[in-house]
Fold these 2 entries.
Entry 1:
Amino acid sequence: MDVKTALITGASAGLGLATATRLSKAGYQLILVARRESKLIELANSLETDCHVIACDVNNFEQLTAMLDARPDQFKNIDLLLNNAGLALGLSTADKSDWNDWHTMIQTNCMALAFLTRQILPAMVERNKGHIINLGSIAANYAYKGGNVYGASKAFVEQFSINLRADLLGTQIRVTNIAPGLIGETEFSQVRFHGDSEAAGAVYANCDALRPDDIAASIEWIAGLPKHVNINQLEMMPTCQAPAGLVIDKTMQ
Ligand code: 8X3
């Protein structure tokens, strides 16, 4: 049987881990990329299909390139690239945001995603086979206070995804942008609030947020569709979340 290979960034937790688990059950062998080696090894040991661990920061382009180049032949052909690594940092308004937070978000959400895509894509084109799934966000399309650079970085992901479709027309390579809303049970808000558990917990209080496996199930479905079907974009929100209209400030007069 033709075993498929998926490369997942940000594989040590949250959506990455949930998707690794699902894709492994679906028979994929996996290249797991994240900084925390022990978490990747633990995950790899818990899965039944073969895994290759790349413990590396996706922003360290030199190390990432070297580790990718050194992957065993068994993992040479990548059928699915899941660009999942990304983060939100801070929820301050633009005038008060930390410049370093902005820099890190643009670096990780845009630059690293573009870099890895540029690394993997030529071989996909050569094989005329492959699927790139990018993790965007509803923040790309719906402005909220404090979303500033995070939302803008995810708008890059969305536009890059659809622009890839334009470039890849005429090939069998598929590209999908997944734009989830509020997802609980991940480190997303812990990271956004720089470890402030109370602020992070408050985001999910009294609401039934999406779970990582909800997104993982969608990724498995999208990747498993017949090769003539391309989902360009999938937007997901929990039922308790909606784009509920514009805001008018009546205190300004
Ligand atoms: C995650 C969704 O609403 O926190 O990208 O921006 S949100």
Entry 2:
Amino acid sequence: MLGKIAVIGTGNIGAVLVQELARRQLAGTVAAVDVKEPDVAKGKCLDISEGRPLIHSDVKLVGSREFDIIAGADMVINTAGVPRTKRPDGSIPSREELLTVNLKITDTVAGAIKEYCPEAMVISIANPLDAIVYRLYQQLSPLKSRLVGMAGQLDSTRYRFFVAEAAGVSVENVEAMVLGGHGDSMVPIRSACRIAGLPVTHFISEEVLAQIEARTRKAGGEVVGLLGSGSAFVSPAWSALEMAEAIIFDKKKIIPASALLDGEFGVSGLFVGVPVLFGKGGVEKVVEFELTDEEKENFQRSIASVQKTVDEVKAMG
Ligand code: APR
């Protein structure tokens, strides 16, 4: 258990995070901050606190519109930002289209982390994921091991779910990894997908797998289309908690996440989804392995798309 975990933004994802942090008892105090009036963060914390007797949790939940509430946090989970939402004409925007508005919000968040908890481990969820994490890096310049983006875990759990359904097996039997940027060019790694230790192709045809991989790349948009307003929030929150638990309990668990690369997979100076070994030091290691030629090509294409968005971030100063 940590002393204090801060949740920035208590919209859809933030609210699930607060209740799960309380239920799982991952910190003595959870401090939530949201700029939304009249005082949404405080309201959500009060609602969840009033239910604490029912989930046997003595975790203290405090919410505020003021950032000083996060002072001294050991870990920050950042969800502040506008989500994608279906347009009136039915089309779904890309995550990259959120950049301009979410960059401004991220600068506020970075300022607060710098002022109130500069040593905190930071897990960021806001989109466009890899570019927003890069912006936090620009603003905070923390040790690269203490800053990471949550995306690969979510994309991989979606891939696992689709594979389990197609194969008619338990989701627990499926291992999978989705790497690269958290955009439509993300890369499901078929060569790393296994069902009960056996290659996935033993259970599912190449043709069906290709359909599953295409669905995985667009899975976030599929939910956006169904919700009508806003984007997926339960599975993203659970995915971030998987990373938080690996760090808090020093699990040495390998989870795909957006980490700063320094030559790994042939990439430098960008945050991109790669397999990360998480422990109490945060990103303790990027686990490199050999991709197939096709995966390599797709990974390069995905990197190019992250680079393009990061170039926009750099151009915005
Ligand atoms: N400081 C704190 N909170 C902020 C700030 C800010 N500067 N700006 C906005 N927020 C809050 C909003 O008031 C809102 O309550 O962030 C919250 C975001 O919640 P939702 O709109 O419900 O969005 P959510 O579904 O939680 O997604 C958050 O994660 O997956 C990404 O694309 C998604 O960028 C989006 C982010």
